[in-house]
Amino acid sequence: MESPAAWMDPSLEIDKLSYEIFSILENKFLFGYDDPKLFRPARSPLGTPLKASAAAGRVRILSIDGGASDGLLAGVALARLEASLRKLSGDPAARIADFFDLAAGSGAGGVLASMLFTRGPDGHPLFSADDALRFLAKNRSRLAATGEKGLLHKIFRRSGGGDGTFFRRIFGDATLRDTVKPVLIPCYDLASGAPFVFSRVDAVETDGYDFLMREVCAATCAATAAAEMRSVDGRTRIRAVGGGLAMRNPTAAAVTHVLNNKHEFPFATGVEDLLVVSLGAGETDIAGRSPAPPSAAELVRIACMGQADMVDQAVAMAFGKSRTTNYVRIQGHGVSLGRADDGVEAAEQTMAERNVESVLFRGRKLTERTNGEKLGWVTEQLIKEHERRRSGSVPTVLIKPVITPRTSCSTTTTTVSSLTSSGSP
């Protein structure tokens, strides 16, 4: 059987000089390295010798794209992944959050990450991946921005608060502090004119950056109107439009966060200390259309798709040779998820497709293996890391606990089964 390194070749068929030049640029400007060869300092930030740092294993990052998407591609991929993890680990109750150290999600991807990582009344994540997929399939029209007319005009209107009511049924009064692992969920703040990333790390530090999860999800999904909200202490005010517009692919933000968060990830000193799983939102059928000028909504989608691809290229280049073992991108190709009558069936088809990736200076090409085969490799890597941590003595992550944890999320009486059953929530 061919080794993973053989079918995840990072060379991308570009010349050696161009590769080295762009590796230097990406490492310097994306990750802050002055020399791409200096991935690891002489000692870890805690003063631990490199041998102990290497024994700490790899930080596991999950990133989920947003944009004009309903999240079904990521939902199907994660449902498959969770089922495989349960089988190989021997734990029928295992959840996605058990095998990742941080989740980043934008748009519908942010909602999916929130459902899988927000703590429920029983202390476990609110949703299994399978339950989350059923919920997304049931409510795909409410989470997707596809087909909106006059999108550029509508996003600047004041919010009517409908999404807040919708997400209240899911998250109750849970806040960013109530996630079982760190999460990063972006939006664009019209008040400050800059991207804003909701983060558990910031929420634990101060109430001024702790927000209700239902409002976080409304903010990252806001496409037809701006979502206005305040932090739990009322000090921070946000007027947000969707994360898919500001940061469709949050992978670079997640990687940078881990490499710079030495308190929670003390041994993550370079890309070789990471295992990144990036889930795309699927392809939209823009290519090959009539020569007529694109609409405003199409221009927004093109910009979002281009941004997501550029982030994928930048991250892949920054990983360099480590891409064969430390970075995996799952993306749809050929099946238009937005137009399919059965979105889940269309997303399932993408698992049998060969993945499409953008190649620096060379357009796009198909990878050698299918998305499903890549997921199989990811499962094996996650299980190996999970087992290594059980027997290892050096902690890989040191997640900062909440001194006064909020338990208000248990006040909601809505159950997962009622949300995923027939009928609108």
UniProtKB/TrEMBL annotation:
Its EC number is 3.1.1.-. The keyword Repeat does not apply. GO terms for biological process: lipid catabolic process. Keywords: Hydrolase, Lipid degradation, Lipid metabolism. Pfam families: Patatin (PF01734). It comes from the Eukaryota. Residues 62-255 form the PNPLA domain. CDD domains: Pat17_PNPLA8_PNPLA9_like. GO terms for molecular function: hydrolase activity. Possesses non-specific lipolytic acyl hydrolase (LAH) activity. Hydrolyzes phospholipids as well as galactolipids. May play a role in disease resistance. The nitrogen atoms of the two glycine residues in the GGXR motif define the oxyanion hole, and stabilize the oxyanion that forms during the nucleophilic attack by the catalytic serine during substrate cleavage. This is Patatin. It comes from Phoenix dactylifera.
